Amino acid sequence: MIKGDKPKVWPQWIAAAIVYILSMLTGLVAGWTSPYLAKLTTGSETLTITNDEGSWIASLFHLSRPIGSIIGAVTVHKFGTKHTVFIAGFPFGIAWIFFLIRESVPWIYASRVSSGVAMGLYLGAFPLYIGEIGNPKIRGALVGLVSYGSAIGYLMGNLLGAYISMRNFSIINLVLSIFFLVSFLYFPSTAHYFVKKNNMDEAEKSLKWYNRQRDVAIELESLKMYIGKPQKLTLKESFKQWTTPLNRKTLFMVICVYLFMQLSGLYTIAMYLEILLTKLKIDVIAPSLVVVAIGIVAIIGGCVAIYTNDHCGRRTMLAASTLGVSINFALIGVNYLLAGHGYDLDNYQWYIIAEFMAYIFFLNIGLTHIPNCLLSEIFSPELKEIGTCIVNIVCACSAFLASKSYQPLLDATSEEFIFFFYAFLVFLMFLYTIIVIPETKGKSLQEIQDMLMKRDKTVEPVQIYRTTND
Predict the structure, then answer these.
(1) Rounded to the nearest 5 degrees, what angle is found at the Cα of 375, between the Cα atoms of 453 and 111?
(2) What are 218-253's pLDDT values in tens digits?
(3) Looking at CB atoms within 10 Å, which of 106, 121, 188, 238 has the fewest?
C-alpha cells in the first residue's frame, strides 16, 4: 500500500444510504398495515374488509417471501449481491402499481405477494452486500443505517396512512421505488463477486471504488485468501457442506435467532398497534397519533443502534434489546389483564403509551438489525448464498405463521395471554443470546471464520471447504 493511501469509507456510506431507500420501502410495507387495516375493517375507506381478510393482508407477504429468497440465492450466485439488491426494487414498484390498478381485496392480495417477493430478495442480498463492501470497523454501523430506513419507512407508513388515501400512498411508494432503481444502477459489483468469477482486474477496480485507494494489492490478496480457489459446486455438493459440524452449528445458530425473532410476534404486534391501543381505550390522544409517536421512537432507537452496533457489540445490544422487549411485553400484558378484570386504567394511559414506546425503542436498538449483521458476516464465503436462502425461507415461514395465527390465537385466548406468551419467548431469546451468540464486533470476515473454528472443538481443517492452492 502506498504510504498515506489509507482506505476511505465514504463510498461505503453512500452505497448504504442508497440501499437505505430500499429499506424504507420495506418499512412502508409494514407501516402501511396499522392505519389502513384499522380503516378497512371499520369501513373508513371506500373499501371494507372482514377481520379474516385483514389477517390475510397482514400475513400474505410473508408467504411469498420464500419465493424471493430462492430467487435471491440464484441471482446472488449468478450476478452477485449488488445486482440482486438492485433487482429487489422491481417487485416493490410492481406491488404499488397493483394498488393503482384497482382498489379491491384481490389486488391488495397481489400487492402483498409482490411485496413479499421483494422482501425476500432484499433480506437475502442486502446483508451480504454490506458485508462484502463494509470496512470491519463500520460494518455494523452500515447495517444499522440500512435497517434504520425500515424505521423511517414504518413511521412514514403510519403518518401518511392516517391522512391520505391508499391511492396517493401507492404513488409516493412507486416514486421511491423508481428513485432507488435509478440511483443504485451505476454502483459497481463487489470485489467478492469478481474474485469468485476469477476476474481480478474488475475486483481490483471494485476495491479501489469502494475504498478510494490507488493501491489495493494487500486487500485483494487478503480477499483471495479468504474466498480461496473458485470452485463450481453442484447443488448436492453445496448442501453436503452443511453436514459438517461447524457449518451445521452456524446455520442452526442463525436460524434460531430468526425463529425467536419472528415467533415472538415482534412485527405482528407492530402491525396491529392502532387496534391494540384502541382496545385499551387510549383516548388521551388519538391512537393513530400514538402510533406516529411510536414510529418516532423507533427512529431514535435506530439512530442509537448505528452507534452502538460497533461500539458496544452485536451480542451486547441483542441481549439488551431482547431483555427490554420481554419486560415491556410483560408490562403490556398486565395492562390487558387488569382491563379484562374491570380495572379503570384511565389515569394510567400515559404509562401504557410509554410501555409501547419502550417496546419499540428496545426493538430497534437490536432485534431489527443485529440478526442481519450476523447474516452479513457469519457464513463462510462458499455457503453464503444458500445459507442466507435457507435462513430467509425459515424466517418467512415463521413470520407468516406468527402473523396469520395472531387473530385466531387472539379469538381463542386474550390479549394478555398473547403478550405474556410473547414475553416468555423473547426472554428465551435473551438467554440464547448471552449463552450462544458470538461477538463479531470489529472483526474481519476471515477473523470471524477463525473464531468460529476455535469455538467449535469438533471442527477439523479438512472440514473447511476452501483451498488457496491448486
Answers:
(1) 160
(2) 888 888 888 776 556 655 666 677 777 888 888 899
(3) 106
SS3 content of the chain, % helix, strand, coil (to 5): 80, 0, 20
Dig out the grid coordinates for 210 from the structure. 469502494
- DSSP E strand boundaries for 335-418: none
State the Cα–Cα distance between residues 166 and 147, nearest whole angstrom.
Answer: 25
For residue 462, what is the enclosing H or E element?
none
d(C-alpha 168, C-alpha 340), whole Å = 39
What is the pTM for the complete model shown? 0.77
* CA terminus-to-terminus distance, the chain: 27
DSSP-assigned letter for residue 438: P
CA distance 384 to 86: 18
Q: Give ∠ CA 117-119-124 in degrees, rounded to 5.
A: 100
Considering the segment(s) 237-438+445-450 as one domain, its CATH architecture is Up-down Bundle (1.20)
Q: What is the DSSP letter of 244?
A: S
Q: Are 393 and 70 in contact (CB under 8 A)?
A: yes
CATH of 1-187, one of 1.10.1740.10, 1.20.1250.20, 3.40.50.1110, 3.10.580.10: 1.20.1250.20
Q: Give the C-alpha separation, 53 to 50, whole Å.
A: 5
Compute the distance between CA of residue 313 and CA of residue 91 in angstroms, rounded to an integer.
34
- Beta-carbon contacts of 386 under 8 Å, excluding residues fewer than 6 positions away, are 73, 238, 239
Instruction: Find the Cα–Cα–Cα–Cα dihedral 247, 252, 253, 257, rounded to 10°.
Output: 140
* Residue 430 to residue 261: CA distance in whole angstroms: 11
Nearest Cα neighbor of 365 from 298, 288, 463 is 298
For 440, other C-beta atoms within 10 Å of its C-beta total: 23
Listed by start position, the domains of the chain span: 1-187, 237-438+445-450
SS3 187: coil
Q: pLDDT digits over 351-370, tens only?
A: 999 999 999 999 989 888 88
